[in-house]
Write a structure and sequence with these properties.
It is a single chain. The protein is mainly alpha-helical. It is built from 12 helices and 2 strands. A two-stranded antiparallel sheet has the order 1-2. Strand 1 and strand 2 form a beta hairpin. The longest helix is centred in the last third of the chain and has 28 residues.
């Protein structure tokens, strides 16, 4: 008979489950302070290390905020909290070429959808903001640091158009995760001008409400960014 070993859970995990349940049930409401560490120790019959580890885990989940010298306070998880929790895993993915390609594909899928949505739903004020971001991007040509910053802003405006904070949080997370790709890609000769040209094409499609062209332009743009990246990485590895 195969062994089916039962592993014993850590006490801190049990405390996490209990506190999470109490928060979800409403016993501890949003903004309310949790009992002191000593009270929690007595309530659950565990030591201080288990309570502190549990509170730290709940903080990473976005369920509590911990301030030095004060009791933990119940908070509401945000999209940023959820995505920040993935950063450690993503760093491991980025250490491997296959992981980088997978994240590039995920970005392409996400931003192609944003481009389609923008072309379909962008209001006049959205188009005006996108045009302003495009103009700043054009004026930054010749200044690589400024160009990179305005490049991010152009894509950020697209992420804001759906007015969904989850999309904005995903955009900001991806910007952080793929920072090295952006630096590397823009070292290629002509990459900045090429990036601006794609941005201009994306903008025209959005302004014309041409959904298919907006997606084609975004796919073309990010496809070339990936090509620039792998070309530059190949040159580095060969040198």
């Amino acid at each position: 008979m195969d062994r089916d070993t039962i592993t014993r859970r850590r006490l801190s995990d049990e405390v996490v489950d209990r506190l999470e349940g109490l928060i979800h049930s409403g016993e501890f409401g949003l903004g309310e302070k949790l009992p002191s560490e000593r009270d929690l120790m007595e309530r659950f019959g565990v030591g201080r290390p288990s309570v502190r580890e549990a509170l730290f885990s709940l903080q990473k989940m976005g369920l509590v905020a911990i301030t030095s010298g004060e009791r933990a306070r119940v908070t509401k998880p945000t999209p940023e909290t959820v995505l920040n929790g993935l950063t450690g895993t993503v760093r491991h993915m980025l250490a491997d070429a296959q992981g980088v390609r997978q994240l590039q594909e995920a970005r392409l899928f996400f931003e192609a959808g944003l481009a389609r949505h923008a072309a379909l739903h962008a209001a006049d004020e959205d188009i005006a903001r996108l045009q302003q971001a495009l103009g700043e991007n054009r004026r930054a040509l010749g200044d690589l640091e400024a160009f990179e910053r305005t490049d991010v802003t152009f894509h950020y405006v697209l992420a804001e158009i759906p007015r969904n904070p989850v999309f904005v949080a995903i955009h900001e997370a991806v910007v952080g995760w793929l920072t090295e790709q952006r630096h590397t890609s823009l070292r290629n000769k002509g990459a900045a001008q090429n990036g601006y040209d794609w941005h201009a094409r994306i903008f025209r499609a959005v302004a014309d409400h041409d959904v298919d062209e907006a997606e084609r332009a975004m796919r073309g743009h990010l496809g070339e960014v990936s090509q620039y990246y792998w070309r530059a990485k190949g040159s580095v590895e060969e040198s």
